[in-house]
Design a protein that fits this description.
By secondary structure, the chain is α+β, with helices and mostly antiparallel strands. It has helices spanning about 1-10, 10-15, 30-35, 55-65, 90-95, 115-125, 145-155, 200-205, 225-230, 245-255, 285-300, 305-310, 325-330, 335-345, 480-490; strands spanning about 45-50, 75-80, 105-110, 130-135, 140, 160-165, 175, 180-185, 190-195, 210-215, 220-225, 260-270, 355-360, 360, 365-370, 380-385, 395, 400-405, 405-410, 420, 430-435, 440-445, 450, 460-465, 475. The protein has two domains: about 1-270, Alpha-Beta Complex (Spore Coat Polysaccharide Biosynthesis Protein SpsA, Chain A); about 355-490, Trefoil (Trefoil (Acidic Fibroblast Growth Factor, subunit A)), CATH 2.80.10. It has a five-stranded mixed beta sheet with strand order 3-2-1-4-11, sandwiched between helices. Strands 5, 6, 7, 10 and 12 form a five-stranded mixed beta sheet that branches. Strands 13-17-18-19-20 form a five-stranded antiparallel beta sheet.
């Protein structure tokens, strides 16, 4: 039983006990059910890539697509087998798809190519007007397709995603997801879900059925006009296997004049797994670092520094040739990453203006501030300076925040503790002043200075009355000289 779970990273027994053609609750808002859609809509080809996928999850994905898509709109289903080794994905699958009521074509890669290149193979054979990508362990719900295609009819440069509901990896229960989340990312360039800000709710006039402009997409499930897919640069073929392609496309679409939306009237369920059951040629870590570094190099301008600060190991991983991707950006006259942060994702935890980025080292102890991997609400720690980025990377911003990814140093009381609290941008407990001459970090609200831990066995910095001792002197790493010069200029003015 456990071996079967580890093989797929979901409960295969539960999946095998459920009908391949099961009924699902209609989870849409009532208002969605009555929405009018254009009489003439484009056709779509649904592209599904798989590698060693379980039979029941793959076939259930196919049947839910067929059963809940208007026949006139579903041109075909394209399956791409990325070098699977499972017997049931061989002749058995070839024979099975010939019995389906919708044209279903199967293509196989010659060797393990990964999601990105396998999707490109599938897209090459698309005959529909729109390409809809789905993962191989999904279930489409009633009315999922029409809202996506209708948005593309209105504007072919709009890339649309459904609300991605949860199919439990243990029970296969269908669980409706919130319509109040959108896609973001952290300093490590990991995709994250965040609450939709009031700004976007106001733009939609409070209508929760209206399309939601999202900064990034999860990447597994989306629809895009076929011609626009190629005009905008399809996928970065220099990326390997999987990971980072969703952020690359998100940045590219927004920066190059397109739009990325979540359509609340469209719901598709997805089996979310805690980890991938598949091996990555070259190793997971190297693949992820390589792909994300290409995103940083091509699309993020100076904000790519955050990625390298958090992942210095990426500097040792070959990025490959990005000349063509940069040329694509020039040809499409794409906007800067600053524009993206200012106009599309002002809620991002990447500061627009920052002075220092890297470790913050205590002059007396030579130890560094360290998040210790803590989440929001946990106390700030210290540790031996390891130079490996990650937990010891902080940014000192023009707004006088000391940030580590989503969190800011926060002190609610003169006696502490100093905690990592989600950055709120309202100064207060999160405002600090760094004097580059005295090297002191002063907490504005309390007037106290950041000091070394009270004893060598307690690895937590404290606030004390400012005294300019070496224990209150902090060295902020200056990797980016232009930022440091700006701090000196702003201090003088």
């Amino acid at each position: 039983m456990l071996d079967k779970f580890q093989e797929n990273q979901f409960n295969l027994l539960a999946s095998d006990m459920i009908s391949l053609n099961r009924s699902l609750t209609d989870v849409r808002f009532e208002k969605c059910k009555d929405k009018p859609y254009p009489e003439l809509m484009p056709t779509t080809s649904v592209v599904i890539v798989f590698h060693n996928e379980a039979w029941t999850t793959l076939i259930r994905t196919i049947w839910s697509t067929i059963n809940r898509s208007p026949k006139a709109l579903l041109k075909e289903i394209i399956l791409v087998d990325d070098a699977s080794e499972k017997e049931h994905l061989g002749k058995k699958l070839e024979d099975y798809i010939t019995t389906l009521p919708v044209q279903t074509r199967l293509f196989r890669t010659e060797k393990r190519s990964g999601l990105i290149r396998a999707r490109l193979l599938g897209a090459k054979h698309v005959q529909g007007d729109v390409i809809t990508f789905l993962d191989a362990h999904c279930e489409c719900t009633e009315g999922w397709l029409e809202p996506l295609l209708a948005r593309i009819v209105e504007d072919r440069t709009t890339v649309v995603c459904p609300i991605i509901d949860v199919i439990s990896d243990t029970t296969f229960e269908y669980i409706q997801a919130s319509d109040m989340t959108w896609g973001g990312f952290n300093w490590k360039l990991n995709f994250r879900w965040y609450r939709v800000p009031e700004r976007e709710m106001s733009r939609r006039g409070g209508d929760r059925t209206a399309p939601l402009r999202t900064p990034t997409m999860a990447g597994g499930l989306f629809a895009i006009d076929r011609d626009y897919f190629y005009k905008i640069g399809s996928y970065d073929e220099g990326m390997d296997i999987w990971g980072g392609e969703n952020l690359e496309m998100s940045f590219r679409v927004w920066q190059c004049g397109g739009r990325l939306e979540i359509v609340p009237c469209s719901h598709v369920g997805h089996v979310f797994r805690d980890k991938s059951p598949y091996s990555f040629p070259g190793g997971v870590q190297n693949v992820v670092l390589h792909n994300a570094a290409r995103v940083a190099e091509v699309w993020m301008d100076e904000w790519g520094d955050f990625y390298y600060a958090m992942n210095p190991g990426a500097l040792n991983v070959p990025v490959g040739d990005v000349t063509e991707r940069k040329a694509l950006r020039d040809r499409l006259k794409c906007k800067s990453f600053r524009w993206y942060l200012e106009n599309i994702y002002p809620e991002s935890q990447m500061p627009l203006e920052y002075y220092y980025l890297g470790e913050i080292r205590n002059a007396e102890t030579s130890n560094c501030l360290d998040t210790l991997g803590g989440k929001a609400g946990q106390p700030l720690g210290m540790g031996y300076c390891h130079g490996m980025g990650g937990n010891q990377v902080f940014a000192y911003t023009k707004r006088k925040q000391i940030m580590s990814d989503d969190n800011c140093l926060d002190a609610a009381h003169p006696r502490g503790p100093i905690k990592l609290i989600r950055c709120h941008g309202m100064r207060g407990n999160q405002e600090w002043t760094y004097d580059s001459k005295t090297r002191t970090i002063k907490h504005t609200n309390t007037g106290m200075c950041l000091d070394k831990p009270e004893s060598s066995d307690v690895w937590k910095p404290v606030l004390r009355a400012c005294n300019r001792s070496r224990g209150q002197q902090w060295l902020m790493q200056v990797d980016f000289k232009w930022q440091a010069r700006r701090h000196a200029r702003d201090q003088a003015s």
